[in-house]
Amino acid sequence: MAGFMRAIGLIQIIGSILVGLVIGNMDGWSIAFVCWVSGILGGVVFIAIATMMESIQRIEDNVYQLSRAYFHANPNEQAPPQALGSSRSSLNKMSQYKMGKTEE
After folding, report:
1. How does DSSP assign 31-87, residue by residue?
2. Residue 17 exposed, middle or buried by CB count within 10 Å (0-12, 13-18, 19+)
3. pLDDT on residue 4
4. If exposure means fewest CB atoms within 10 Å of the residue's CB, which of 15, 20, 33, 66 is most exposed?
5. What is the DSSP letter of 28?
6. Which of 52, 56, 53, 75 lies closest to 64, judged by CA?
7. What would you measure as the largest C-alpha separation in the chain, in angstroms?
8. Are 44 and 88 within 8 A, CB to CB?
9. What torsion do the CA atoms of 79, 81, 83, 88 make, to the nearest 10 degrees?
10. What predicted TM-score, i.e. pTM, was given to this entire model?
């Protein structure tokens, strides 16, 4: 996904430069300048998001490798808890509860 985002950013930068050159020759260079600035800023945002996604993936991989190494080196330690499944609680005990006035 990060590679896709990086490619989109590069395509946007290159495309904005080309479109700016075409528009600059036809309508005026002020419109081309706006096209260049907006395209480059948009492309940089995509590239920055891709870089953050790569960093997060690298951190996740490192944490996974460290946890596997720790539990391999310390076999007596308890393994990390597994997901318990559905977190919905039963509301059967609340079926007779009534909001409002309390009886005294």
Report:
1. HHHHHHHHHHHHHHHHHHHHHHHHHHHHHHHHHHHHHHHHHHH-TTSPPPPPP-S--
2. middle
3. 94
4. 66
5. -
6. 56
7. 86
8. no
9. 160
10. 0.64
Specify the higher pLDDT residue, 3 or 76.
Answer: 3
Rounded to whole angstroms, the Cα distance separating 39 from 18 reads 10
pLDDT of 100 > 80? The answer is no
Residues 67, 80: contact at Cβ < 8 Å? Answer: yes
Q: 16 with 40: CB under 8 angstroms?
A: yes
- Rounded CA-CA distance 5/13 in Å is 12
